[in-house]
């Protein structure tokens, strides 16, 4: 694998499992050194051990607690002397509908999923401004682009897009880029997916029919997109929202087939050129 992140330092939140862990592994595989943070202490240290303590520092903590955020940023500077990439991955959701979502639920989901990335971004911006460079990649969701349930989470992810655009617009002059990756369905250890799996073990097979690509996502799909946007190859890309969703937001293939009573069949194009 190419070393796009050689001599670069990245900080990944929510890195203990799932998408966050996949992002951490992808970045270190391309040469980065890392600070990883998460509330799950044991799992986080296991990730750092797997990567290698010469390449990764585990800093347990909450993205909603300013002291924990400051500790993580300080750890990056103390150990590696700089911070080139921030990946705001950590998020939280539980309530699937407005009817189930109390004001306290709403506040908690917004606090973790939107306020947390805001606080982490504010903490790293002075460092990146001082360096004259930096890349911030926020993990959004197709839920921030269209309603898919979990209303507080969707609202937070929609807000995260605007926050991304704000950073891109205000800080581009300092050599700082900010972009958003919006995944579709990706099976992880998140509480919502755990609950849904318990209710229906075949849920991901059922959801796959809504994706034109024919499957749900994988953590590595998201990690690959993050690695591109965080790298110098994306030097002219900022304020963008990259949907990594197997075509879900491009069109509703199942709806179209049911509405038109026609199945999409690439082998049945009447005017296709013949060899």
What are its keywords?
single chain; 275 residues; alpha/beta; Rossmann fold; seven-stranded parallel β-sheet; 9 helices; disordered C terminus
Beta-sheet strand percentage?
5-15%
- By CATH reckoning, the class would read Alpha Beta
Helix residue percentage:
40-55%
What's the shape? globular
The CATH topology turns out to be Rossmann fold
Estimated structural class: alpha/beta
Can you describe this structure?
The chain is α/β, with parallel strands linked by helices. It has a single domain (9-268), classed as NAD(P)-binding Rossmann-like Domain (Rossmann fold), CATH 3.40.50.720. Helices cover 45% and strands 13% of the residues. The protein is built from nine helices and seven strands. It has helices at residues 18-29, 41-51, 66-80, 103-131, 151-171, 191-199, 203-208, 219-230, 253-260; strands spanning 9-13, 33-37, 56-58, 85-88, 134-139, 176-183, 241-244. Strands 3-2-1-4-5-6-7 form a seven-stranded parallel β-sheet, sandwiched between helices. Helix 4 (103-131) runs parallel beside helix 5. It is globular. The two termini are 38 Å apart. 41% of the residues are buried. The model is unreliable at 268-275 (pLDDT under 50).
């Amino acid at each position: 694998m190419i070393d796009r992140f050689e001599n670069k330092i990245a900080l990944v939140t929510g890195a203990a499992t799932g998408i966050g862990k996949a992002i951490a592994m992808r970045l270190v595989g391309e040469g980065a050194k890392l600070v990883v943070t998460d509330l799950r202490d044991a799992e986080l240290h296991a990730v750092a051990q797997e990567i290698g303590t010469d390449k990764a520092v585990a800093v347990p903590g909450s993205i909603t607690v300013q002291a924990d955020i400051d500790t993580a940023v300080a750890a990056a500077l103390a150990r590696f002397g700089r911070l080139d990439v921030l990946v705001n991955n950590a998020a939280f959701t539980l309530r699937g509908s407005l009817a189930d979502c109390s004001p306290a639920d709403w506040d908690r989901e917004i606090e973790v999923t939107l306020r947390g990335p805001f606080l982490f971004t504010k903490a790293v911006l002075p460092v990146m401004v001082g360096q004259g460079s930096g890349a911030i990649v926020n993990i959004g969701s197709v839920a921030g682009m269209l309603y898919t349930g979990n209303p507080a989470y969707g609202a937070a992810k929609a807000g995260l897009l605007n926050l991304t655009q704000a950073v891109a617009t205000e800080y581009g002059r300092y050599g700082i880029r900010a972009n958003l990756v919006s995944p579709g369905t990706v099976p992880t250890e998140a509480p919502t997916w755990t609950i849904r799996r318990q209710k229906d073990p075949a849920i991901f097979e059922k959801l796959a029919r809504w994706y034109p690509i024919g499957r749900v996502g994988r953590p590595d799909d998201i990690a690959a997109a993050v690695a591109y946007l965080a790298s110098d190859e994306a030097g002219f890309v900022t304020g963008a929202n990259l949907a990594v969703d197997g075509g879900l937001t491009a069109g509703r293939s199942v709806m179209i087939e049911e509405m038109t009573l026609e199945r999409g069949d690439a082998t049945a194009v009447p005017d296709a050129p013949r060899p």
